[in-house]
Model the fold of this input.
Amino acid sequence: MIRSLFFPFLLIPTMLAAELERPSVPEVELTVRLYNLAEAPDDEVQRAAEAANAVFRRIGIGLVWLRCEGPTPDKACDMVSGPAVFNLRLMPAHMPPPEGLPKNIFGFALMSTRGEFAVTANVYFERVARISDGRKYRRPVVLGAVMAHELGHLLLGINSHSKKGLMTLPWGPKVLLAANRGMLGFSKKEAGRILEAAIDRLGRGSSPGI
Done:
């Protein structure tokens, strides 16, 4: 859970049945240090965290969220480290994405080519907000799916986009509609790889990351 603020805790329909066969009780736990640099509304960020958590719970992984920005960050933010601790940053409008990043891409993971574990990802809140005003797409749910997508990249590694589901690219209307309905998730193959990577990271202790 996001301590003090959040509590723990949605693609296509053809992939949903396989996901629901996965255990509802997490086999492992990963920690996410959340930096709401965009100053997104707390209630929306909380609901987004719950939506992202739901995605990972379906594949046997629990996410422990820590709020790590502002004048009173969670004290645990400086006490946890290692390859099983991720940094997820909601980026503000004055820190735009790299030039040339397509408008229908809402974030990116910072991947390493030198063998370190990737642990940091950026999500561009303004881009998510622009396409999810609550009338067609619910912003917190879509934001949660984007957050889960980027965490998925950190665990799956380089070249981890897929042709369908949560890890697809780009996100057109069909994918956004599935996200809005809480139906986006990892494929069975991706789920296996992610769980294996999570267990490996947890066993590495304080190995370096980027």
User: Anything to note?
Assistant: The domain at 13-203 is CATH 3.40.390.10 (Collagenase (Catalytic Domain)). The CA atoms of residues 162 and 168 lie 5 Å apart. The chain is about 35% helix and 15% strand. The longest strand covers residues 28-36.
